[in-house]
Design a protein that fits this description.
Helix content of chain B: 55-70%
Mean pLDDT of chain B: 88
Structural class of chain B: mainly alpha
Distance between the termini of chain A: 18 Å
Structural class of chain A: mainly alpha
Strand content of chain A: under 5%
Number of strands of chain B: 0
Helix content of chain A: over 70%
Number of helices of chain A: 20
Largest interface: A-B, 37 and 38 residues
Strand order of the largest sheet of chain A: 1-2
Shape of chain A: globular
Largest sheet of chain B: none
Number of helices of chain B: 3
Shape of chain B: elongated
Distance between the termini of chain B: 40 Å
Low-confidence stretches of chain A: none
Oligomer: heterodimer
Low-confidence stretches of chain B: none
Mean pLDDT of chain A: 88
Largest sheet of chain A: 2 strands, antiparallel
Order of helices and strands of chain B: HHH
Chain lengths: 496, 112
């Protein structure tokens, strides 16, 4: 009983942090950094605690305000939610550690921390809510604050990227709202579990596929699936490094991938038609992202295109709908969150030390920045899928699942995209860290201690990503999450 | 039935504004039109022909009342829409300071 009372804290704690920072942050030194670190660490502890509780009770439900469903808003914590919460807070803690040193060069870091916590509370809200309209509200909370964060530097490129991001996101939200309106007209309820029940009883009709298409467009815009991806390669590189890490590591996954699969699998119910659409979009993203990344010379832009391609892998894996595919997709979600955040932090560290993001002006940095280069290598190898690291296992699972389901063409395509991924990441690492040190970079210093700490923690997580598949650990963490998606129709049983 | 189609036409007009217009402010206006079309659809979903306001009082029976839930939700989306518009217009003004123009084709140093 007490455990269910803790669920609202995932939303309330960061919001309280925002409030305190806006009140006292400008007066007291170090107050905003301390509050943010405290909030994220306690949220991390809370999400680890909820793994154990969720293991014992399978699904936790909190009735906010004591209102019973379908009238009240539910906060639900099942396996998938817990999995996402742990991923989000692991990465968010490291990002805060990194930001404490990195954000010193900006004029008002207090506002940065306030917006950061606002984004975090929106993401947590999306993860725990059981009400479709509430999900829309949290979606807007986090995407608006993320948009403000992209523009944080207020230089030419940042403003332009933030404007594009804002327009695309608002358009996506309008599509989502339209979909919600259609579904409400059909089911006369907004509670997701109740909605799933009504749809299962009444059958799909013509409204549900229509809503599904609107959701794929809306959430696809937020997840940057390929035909809807135009904003991502601009927005991710332009933001400050901690925000790029957050955008690529967490936001596109919580706002896009998680919501898409929660709604499609648990509420609307998957059909073969939807599955083939998802497989096609996933494969398209894989290829387009990988091939566009090859020609980039801006290190952060290369990483942004790589994010596109990895999101394709995740959508493809989960879209297969087989147990192995879902397991691989979720594991890849975790590995990509950790690995890509690490790579963006590394590129931020390089930018911090050298003042440039152009790989043609770099080289030989491993002599001057040993920690950064070692962690960067680990991150790149994990994303590229080099055997002992986490990314290898998840890509292997996805490709096996595709072969098992009989999609040989898609499997070959995934292998090809993986090879290309290895190629462009090798190019990036070679250009940045290997070779001769140019004259202009002789004076480069290694980055401060806290930044190194953050990168080392993420690198350890990257190495350990494959361990999640071991029996024992897999049952505790991944298995529950994949079961939620696999038996999506069980979600309807949440309410009596 | 006609009203619903007109709603979707309104949404498409907004979409046209976002996709085809070159002026930053007109793009923002297009977005607002999109948002309002979906709000309108939401209100229509809860509307009943000749329905009365959803006020609960003990002496009037609950019949022929419009659905109050969409109205409450549209209120929320309008507030969200204000926040979005505010942010986008603020960005547009800062863009004007930096580039000296509202023309989106001239504000394109980043290639998507």
């Amino acid at each position: 009983m007490t455990a269910t009372r803790l669920i609202p804290f995932f939303v309330v704690l960061p919001l309280a942090g925002v409030f305190l920072i806006m009140l006292f942050g400008w007066k007291l030194r170090r107050f905003s950094e301390g509050t943010t670190l405290l909030v994220t660490l306690s949220l991390l502890a809370l999400s680890f605690f909820s793994i154990g509780v969720q293991h014992a009770q399978s699904t936790l439900v909190h009735f906010s305000g004591g209102w019973k469903p379908p009238a009240g808003i539910l906060l639900v914590e099942d396996g998938l939610t817990v999995f996402m919460l742990v991923t989000v807070h692991l990465v968010a803690c490291c990002i805060v550690l990194f930001a404490i040193s990195y954000m010193k060069k900006y004029t008002s870091p207090g506002k940065f921390y306030a917006l950061f916590l606002m984004t975090l509370s929106g993401m947590n809200g999306i993860l725990v809510t059981g009400d479709l309209f509430n999900l829309f509200v949290f979606l807007e909370v986090s995407s608006l604050s993320a948009c403000a964060l992209v523009a944080f530097g207020t230089e030419r490129h940042e403003l332009e990227a933030a404007f594009k991001y804002g327009v695309m996101n608002t358009l996506g939200a309008a599509f989502v709202l339209l979909g919600i309106a259609f579904l409400y007209a059909y089911c006369s309820t907004l509670n997701m579990a109740d909605m799933a029940k009504v749809i299962a009883e009444k059958g799909g009709g013509r409204v549900v596929p229509m809503a599904a298409v609107l959701f794929i467009m809306g959430f696809g815009l937020k997840a940057a699936l390929v035909p809807f991806h135009a904003w991502l390669p601009d927005a991710h590189p332009s933001a400050p490094a901690p925000i790029s890490a957050m955008l690529s590591g967490l936001i596109i996954k919580c706002l896009g991938v998680y919501t898409l699969f929660r709604v499609l699998f648990c509420v609307l119910g998957m059909t073969p038609m939807l599955r083939s659409v998802l497989l096609f979009l996933g494969a398209l993203s894989m290829g387009v992202g990988a091939f566009s990344a090859v020609g980039q010379w801006d290190i952060k832009r290369l990483l942004a295109y790589s994010s596109l391609s990895q999101i394709g892998y995740i959508v493809f894996g989960i879209g297969l709908g087989t147990p192995l595919g879902i397991l691989g997709g979720l594991l890849h979600l975790f590995n990509h969150s950790v690995g890509k955040s690490l790579l963006f932090l590394t590129s931020g560290a390089v930018d911090y030390a050298t003042g440039t993001r152009d790989m043609r002006k770099m080289g030989g940095l491993s002599q001057r920045m040993p920690v950064t280069s070692a962690t960067g290598m680990i991150g790149a190898m994990s994303i590229a899928g080099v055997p002992p690291f986490g990314g290898f296992w998840s890509k292997l699972l996805i490709i096996f699942a595709a072969v098992q389901a009989g999609y040989f063409g898609y499997a070959a395509w995934a292998v090809l995209a993986g090879v290309v991924t290895m190629g462009y990441l090798a190019k990036a690492m070679k250009q940045t860290f290997a070779g001769a040190l140019p004259e202009s970079l002789r004076q480069v210093q290694e980055v401060p201690l806290l930044m190194r700490c953050a990168m080392v923690i993420l690198a350890i997580l990257c190495v350990g990503g494959g361990l999640l598949l071991l029996p024992g650990i897999q049952e505790a963490f991944l298995r529950h999450a994949s079961e939620v998606l696999l038996n999506g129709s069980l979600y309807a049983k949440l309410i009596g | 039935m006609m009203v619903y189609w007109l709603c979707l036409v309104l949404f498409c007009i907004g979409l046209y504004g976002v996709v085809r217009k070159r002026n930053v402010i007109k793009i923002v206006i297009g977005l607002i039109i999109c948002e309002y079309a979906s709000n309108l659809l939401f209100i229509l979903v809860g509307y009943r022909m000749n329905g009365r306001a959803p006020v609960l009082s003990p002496d009037i029976p609950i019949e022929n009342m419009v659905d109050p839930l969409p109205q409450a939700m549209v209120l929320t989306t309008i507030v969200i829409g204000v926040a979005t518009t505010l942010l986008l217009v603020a960005l547009a003004l800062r863009l004007y300071e930096k580039y000296g123009t509202f023309d989106i084709t001239k504000i394109s140093e980043l290639k998507g």
